[in-house]
Amino acid sequence: xxxxxxxxxxxxxxxxxxxxxxxxxxxxxxxxxxxxxxxxxxxxxxxxxxxxxxxxxxxxxxxxxxxxxxxxxxxxxxxxxxxxxxxxxxxxxxxxxxxxxxxxxxxxxxxxxxxxxxxxxxxxxxxxxxxxxxxxxxxxxxxxxxxxxxxxxxxxxxxxxxxxxxxxxxxxxxxxxxxxxxxxxxx
Amino acid sequence: xxxxxxxxxxxxxxxxxxxxxxxxxxxxxxxxxxxxxxxxxxxxxxxxxxxxxxxxxxxxxxxxxxxxxxxxxxxxxxxxxxxxxxxxxxxxxxxxxxxxxxxxxxxxxxxxxxxxxxxxxxxxxxxxxxxxxxxxxxxxxxxxxxxxxxxxxxxxxxxxxxxxxxxxxxxxxxxxxxxxxxxxxxxxxxxxxxxxxxxxxxxxxxxxxxxxxxxxxxxxxxxxxxxxxxxxxxxxxxxxxxxxxxxxxxxxxxxxxxxxxxxxxxxxxxxxxxxxxxxxxxxxxxxxxx
Lengths: 187, 290
Hints:
Number of helices of chain A: 7
Radius of gyration of chain A: 19 Å
Order of helices and strands of chain A: HHHHHHH
Helix content of chain B: 40-55%
Oligomer: heterodimer
Structural class of chain A: mainly alpha
Distance between the termini of chain A: 50 Å
Mean pLDDT of chain A: 79
Shape of chain B: elongated
Mean pLDDT of chain B: 60
């Protein structure tokens, strides 16, 4: 249903607002890109660099952006590529002698932040039980609050399929959470 | 034929999800968000990307892990090289980077690593074209689950009111609007001249920084003037840290090492937890050399 054809589309199809620039996109969607990269396995020390790479791509490709499926769906695709690219390169980085300890990009520990991280770790474990396709749809819809149509565009599936994945992911997640909660009550 | 109704999010109290579910999701939603500082840096980076590739590279140089990752960290005193890494696209840019490196302060060799040519590894990976997600055939395993609506044979549409749901957790970097004041000469810096004559009357904070960054490698004195102007006009601006890092780099390039170190000390006092401190240490050769 989405008819992206990337750069080969004739220009009349483009409908982006002329005023849109990369800075605005960062302001509006920078946190989304950040979280998406983190959820796709980019560590806290690397995420800033990978995010910059994402926005370099955005900068280069903005003229080809076709907004029918939404900016976040487009960004999501770029993030997915950059994240997997980064993971492929990871073997090389480990070969590098690093003279100094990598800089901390995580904020200093605070109880609140700690609690959030624990909760995320717990949620991540639950999401880890889902298959990748269901998980992606669930995260984009429930946590990132994309519309279902945007989700479908982001992951490249029909809306009906996105709906199905969401429903089954929800059932599994709620079951897992209920199970964990019951265990906690017992202990 | 039925339209697919936009489901109510579990986080929405009307969804009927249990408190446990909602609490966990809410925490999970916010756990991985960037700090405002990180977002601001990303915004500054984007701003520079918007004004030209070289600027983008300069900003990357200010980032840290990139350099370590590709292994050039050890030999570079000057950020430009790192930029070459990410901009990989253009051989021209990379060439410029190296040239500028050697034109700048003599590169100092650092004992730890002798390095794979960065460009051979890190550069080529960018796919030439990142296209938006393509429509894909429905995978076989995605038959609608129980509880999904009756088959929709046509692409269902979704109420447009939902199409622009925006995450509440997306803070915008703060970019103060430019304020025009008379540039004054900050203490501790001896300006070589006044503000650049070509400057537009209301050049924004970021535009000023971009201009400084653009000329830093070839004209550090000129960049220093721009940075002085920035400091005069935006003493507590959103990108004060970035300005200071650039200024320290410019001072190093000008051979004004004492000034650079004094400024670095001031930076360390003003921004003790800054992510830029490592970059500054690299600029000053304090990261394991000397």
